[in-house]
Write a structure and sequence with these properties.
It is built from 19 helices and six strands. Helix 4 packs antiparallel against helix 5, helix 5 runs parallel beside helix 18 and helix 11 packs across helix 18.
Length: 532
């Protein structure tokens, strides 16, 4: 009986995966680059390639474990992340139960994270975002158990997980650094644990620097990787970048957190509303709506390379990245756009209303070591994504997970209303599951069209523009992705709409579910062939 909720979470995830059907031998998003690196591991060498701007090796070794056991395939690598995702959700449920002392709150929070459009979609790729988040959840769980029991095994596990995490992304160094902050709030053996953790940080950082020394020897000068220690926080360049990123990104970050956390906080709004005075409640409601309308009215609800208009997953055809759709993507509709504009204001305003009512009420729980650790980790990660050069909506996943965790502590004494949270969670399930199902269908059709040209008709890959993933994968050969943004060198084109100087050659109709309609991917052939 105590494992019933774990079983239900796993069952819901399994049913969702059956609906999505994540099988298929093709890359998704940027995972073509990581897949090539796993291929190198099968040849006995480590090569993260020029594309990744992260340490990556932990992620590659996890995928390599599956391809070594099941044989090399895109699906085997995708399966490694699906399993990582499920493990992360189950541990997240256990963590939430400890922080909130409520099974209902823990189950609801786990559901909100699992079916967040960002999280669920990336769980079905070999991208690093979900695996990083899983390791982060494991680290917070180990730290929580240590703060509860003071058992050395949990302390050691925090350091070990930090080491694995930092060898996936450099951001992993935040875990032991924030763990130190939590240790300051211990009442006994504080300095003993602080000194021990400091030694652990030295070990983690030394491992990172040693690995980076190896990368310096093997990476070309053109690689995207940014080595640690190369940024001076006192420099004018750093301050300018931080200020510029805050201006450009603050609204998007707050909007996504407000929208993606809303199905969790709405559980507690009925109880908070009952406890609030009418004048205070009316002022909070009005303030929340006005603030969110002013901040987010002109802010697109979608961004980056996951949640793209009415399809989950990047629309990475030539026509979308080259702005053939000047104003809207292929699946845009005014009705859906209008609904999403209402949703983004209401959801974000609901989250802000919860924060206002929860923070000003009496009887708020005080901060303890685990709460300080979680809060420090949230703001440290937020700071990191404000100083990075690249920025995508998928970077928000750890903020969503940590936000749910921290809010579960803030409302531990409130009575959740499962009925209040049911509708927005079902809305997320619909978007995530059927949007991701369409994502796979589109890519299957795209690769079916490509294989018709390449394998059946013998057209060289270099003459086919079939979108970002196809051109970057290039049958596992060195990438030539920069050519993808032009049609000058291609005799064949695969996408939705035609381009000048091309004619229709072959159609591939398919059924969409998000939105529900028939759609078609087409092979276009250049009317006057270009000599290779």
């Amino acid at each position: 009986n105590q494992y019933r909720h774990y079983f239900i979470l796993a069952l819901l995830f399994l049913i969702s995966e059956i609906i999505v059907d994540p099988r298929g031998e093709f890359p998704l998003n940027d995972d073509w680059a990581y897949t090539k690196s796993v291929l190198f591991l099968h040849e006995g060498k480590v090569d993260i390639g020029e594309w990744p701007a992260m340490t990556l090796i932990s992620h590659l070794l996890w995928g390599f474990l599956f391809t070594k056991t099941l044989g090399f395939s895109f699906f085997a690598l995708r399966l490694s992340v699906i399993i990582s995702s499920l493990a992360g959700i189950l541990v997240f449920f256990a963590l939430l139960r400890k922080w909130s002392n409520s099974v209902a709150v823990a189950f609801s929070g786990a559901m909100v994270l699992l079916f967040s459009p960002l999280y669920f979609n990336l769980s079905n790729t070999f991208m690093t975002d979900v695996s990083f988040n899983t390791l982060l959840i494991f680290s917070v769980y180990a730290a929580t158990r240590f703060f509860e029991s003071r058992h050395l095994i949990w302390f050691v596990l925090v350091i070990v997980l930090s080491l694995i995490l930092v060898l996936m992304r450099q951001f992993g160094i935040l875990v032991p650094a924030c763990f130190v902050i939590g240790l300051f709030f211990l009442k006994e053996k504080k300095w003993h644990y602080l000194l021990t953790c400091a030694a652990g940080i030295v070990v983690v950082y030394a491992a990172l620097k040693g690995y980076e020394s190896y990368l310096k020897a093997i990476l070309p000068a053109t690689a995207s990787y940014k080595f640690s220690g190369g940024v001076s926080v006192l420099s004018e360049q750093f301050r300018d970048r931080l200020l510029s990123n805050i201006i450009q990104r603050h609204a998007k970050i707050f909007l996504h957190l407000g929208v993606y956390i809303f199905p969790f906080v709405v559980l507690f709004l009925p109880d908070l509303i009952r406890q609030s005075k009418k004048i205070l409640l009316a002022g909070s409601v009005l303030s929340s709506l006005v603030i969110c309308a002013c901040l987010f009215y002109d802010e697109p609800a979608q961004m980056g390379n996951v949640f793209e208009d009415m399809s989950l997953g990047a629309e990475t055809w030539y026509e979308t990245l080259n702005h053939t759709f000047v104003d809207h993507t292929h699946t845009w509709s005014p009705v859906f756009a209008g609904v999403m504009n209402v949703v983004k204001i209401l959801f974000s305003a609901g989250t802000l209303l919860f924060l206002l009512l929860a923070l000003i009420r009496k009887g708020k729980p005080g901060l303890n070591s685990r709460g300080v650790f979680g809060l420090a980790l949230f703001f440290a990660y937020l700071f990191m994504i404000l100083i990075t050069e690249s920025y995508f909506d998928r970077y928000h996943i750890p903020l969503i997970a940590l936000g749910i965790l921290l809010l579960s502590c803030l409302c531990a004494d409130l009575r959740p209303s499962i009925a209040a949270g049911a509708l927005p969670i079902l809305f997320f399930i619909w978007i995530s599951v059927f949007g991701t199902k369409d994502y796979f269908t589109i890519n299957r059709v795209r690769w079916q069209a490509y294989h018709h040209l390449h394998r059946t008709l013998g057209v060289p890959t270099q003459q086919i523009n079939a979108g970002f993933e196809v051109n970057c994968w290039n049958e596992g050969l060195p990438t030539w992705w920069q050519n993808f943004l032009t049609l000058d060198h291609f005799n064949y084109l695969i996408q939705y709409q035609n381009e000048p100087e091309f004619k229709k050659m072959k159609h591939y109709p398919f059924q969409r579910y998000f939105p529900f309609k028939k759609d078609t991917v087409t092979i276009f052939e250049r009317e006057t062939k270009i000599a290779p």
